[in-house]
Design a protein that fits this description.
- The structure holds two protein chains of two kinds.
- Chain A has no helices and eleven strands.
- By secondary structure, chain A is mostly beta strands.
- In chain A, strands 2, 4, 5, 9, 10 and 11 form a six-stranded mixed sheet that branches. Chain A has a five-stranded antiparallel sheet with strand order 1-3-8-7-6, with no helix packed on it.
- Chain B contains no helices and eleven strands.
- By secondary structure, chain B is mainly beta.
- Helix content of chain B is 0%, strand content 58%.
- In chain B, the strands form two sheets. In chain B, strands 2, 4, 5, 6, 9, 10 and 11 form a seven-stranded mixed sheet that branches.
- Classes of the chains: A mainly beta, B mainly beta.
- Chains A and B meet through strand 5 and strand 9 of A and strand 5 and strand 10 of B.
């Protein structure tokens, strides 16, 4: 069973701080990694993706991937109350998987003013 | 922009009814997916389709069936709704050009009484 594990939280950070969200995965052959944000009552929305080891930055968001250790993380700098949401880590095994994603359970992030 | 639509945002049905959930995408995607999302259980894959009339079971197909007669439309069918099928149902479509990942529709909150 391929697994993706996240700390469910809730993770609470003050406004302006860095929020750090972590994810580990079990399938060593996984090829691509995604972070989705889901507001309460809404559907998941893609915010970051990463394919290669290292860091990838997009505005206030940085995704980090370490394939040797099988973990991927998301850093949110200068956190805002509007960042309060559930963050889902998703992993694509690649190959002929038809784009199937394995999702973690999600981490609830609360940014308080 | 990828656009995935679902026929209803909220639906209330009675036990034993046959329920149809419709999903439409406008990007000529080949792969489409149906998930359910429940608190504490995360996103679970029910069925997916990799082409017209082609389908495969996901992790929790029991009590569900699907239909894909046209490329843009993927339907989830609850043959005889039960109270344990009360859930949020999410449809997703796979974008291959550019970022190879899934984009979600707005979701249908189904309540079975």
């Amino acid at each position: 069973q391929k697994e993706v594990e996240q700390n469910s939280g809730p993770l609470s950070v003050p406004e302006g701080a860095i929020a750090s969200l972590n994810c580990t995965y079990s399938d060593r052959g996984s090829q691509s990694f995604f972070w989705y944000r889901q507001y309460s009552g809404k559907s998941p929305e893609l915010i970051m993706f990463i394919y290669s080891n290292g860091d990838k930055e997009d505005g206030r968001f940085t995704a980090q991937l370490n394939k040797a250790s099988q973990y991927v993380s998301l850093l949110i700098r200068d956190s805002q109350p509007s960042d309060s949401a559930t963050y889902l880590c998703a992993v694509n095994a690649g190959g002929t998987s038809y784009g199937k994603l394995t999702f973690g359970q999600g981490t609830i992030l609360t940014v308080h003013p | 922009d990828v656009k995935v639509t679902q026929s209803s945002r909220y639906l209330v049905k009675r036990t034993g009814e046959k329920v149809f959930l419709e999903c439409v995408q406008d990007m000529d995607h080949e792969n489409m997916f149906w998930y359910r999302q429940d608190p504490g259980l995360g996103l679970r894959l029910i069925y997916f389709s990799y082409d017209v009339k082609m389908k495969e079971k996901g992790d929790i197909p029991e009590g569900y069936s699907v239909s894909r007669e046209k490329k843009e439309r993927f339907s989830l069918i609850l043959e005889s709704a039960s109270t344990n099928q009360t859930s949020m149902y999410l449809c997703a479509s796979r974008e291959l050009l550019g970022i190879d990942t899934q984009y979600f529709g707005p979701g249908t909150r189904l309540t079975v009484l």
